[in-house]
Input
Amino acid sequence: MICPICQKEVERLLRHFHPEMDAPILEGLKAEVVQWDPALGACTRCVDQAQLDVWAAHGSWLPEEMGGYRIAPLQKRLMVHPHYTGKGVTICFIDSGFSNHPDIQGRIHKVLDIHKPTASEESLFRVNSLNGHGTMTSVVCSGDGKLSGGLYRGLAPDAELVLIKVTDERGSISGAGIAKAIRWATEHRKPYGIRVINLSVTADESTGYRENEVDLAIEEAVNSGIAVVAASGNDPRAQLKAPANSPHAITVGGSDDHNLLHPLMHSLYHSTFGETADGLQKPELVAPAIWVPAPVPLGTQEHKAAIALFGMLNATNEVYLNAWVANNLVHLRWESHWVEKNAGEIRKKALDEIADRKLISPFYQHAEGTSFAAPIVCGVIAQMLEANKDLTPPAIRKNLLSSARRLPSSSSERQGLGVIHPLSAVTLAETEPTLVPPFFTPVIDYRRNHIDFYLFDSSASNPVLCGDFTQWNLRPVPLHRSESKGWNAHIPLLPKGWYSYKYLMDNKQWLHDLTNLFQKADGLGGLNSQFFIE
Output
């Protein structure tokens, strides 16, 4: 096919443009061809160039290539609100261990070993292999990019941090340890100002959420006003375990933007998805889970090797280069004959190893896994809370899900509501501060024997409630405007059991309840909301 912009033959054209989110790009493409219409599509190269032109107009730039490729920072690849940095918000990271990385120094309120509460900060920050994962997740979310001149900063570079280590003496992470850490964060939320918990860890059980200590602890945290975010996992064939199975957690799967510049290029990462042991659908949304800039933990063997490899690329004197190789054989674990190789062979091997180790610089690498998608969502939530400190967990959930961008070629089972869109989520937090009350829906009133349904969408038109209890669209229940700018309806209490429902707008657009904790695939590529009568 031929691109209508550049007139070159290409394999595919992008057509799924959003009239508001992509407005600057559409303007750039129309400037190239005045008669162009978005329905005609454009090739990925032209879309990329239009995005680059938008960034150039705002003084933005991308890093130089390193090792034959470049990793664009998340601030460029995601539409991030330029005015918020998570200031005044504390995020609690529960992970394997942490280090006092320069990108987060000065903002750590508390570091704690949940199994050894009296352990000193110095001992907890000691360099070891267990501390790498937590260091990476916390910096991905909240690093200020100090070691990259601010380039690889997270979405919440001004957020305050509480770091809780959950690895035990055997180097294992248990559900009991995770639950204990969540409860500690809940109990200490007020003195430390904890509003968000990141869980890039997995427990050892796959049970129903009512019997799982991790899930029960998450429910307590959310009920206390803390938003809890969990990574879904990285195996699409695996069963969802705690904390990813918790209905109260916002479970994040992975997307892949291929390290390119435009959200239309997103596809799905091989993350865990599907039904939990309770028959609930996860994840709620997806975020970048590959090509994520993350720190190389300082002082580790990996960091020493990174310094050695980039030192080889920068060496100008061949004699010096051979001496550099000789001095770093132990860090690189190269065979001794590499000391005798010429400069070209050494540099080629260094470049190959930089690529294999996924290094960006001596201080950064590109990481992958939903462990890093979850902190990205936490960064967005911190921005939302900075914009509106009164947001409740239901409001946070509703704003994240209603602003996510659906991948048209993938089912809801794998992506939930789609790829996170930070700018839209934060803008909703600014403009709809009082729309969503502090409860999840529907509200089942056993004392008065009725069920209240709420739709928090001021733009909704002629909404009606449809479900298996109304024979779906045969006997819909009209919703009425409420004083809180939303819509509501109530029905008599139903017999014991599970029920599914959706909202129907103008008799043509279906929408599931974004403030409902229980979702299930509808068999048509979408989701139904569910509730249970005891």
In short: The CA atoms of residues 20 and 151 lie 27 Å apart. Residues 64-69 have pLDDT under 50 and may be disordered.
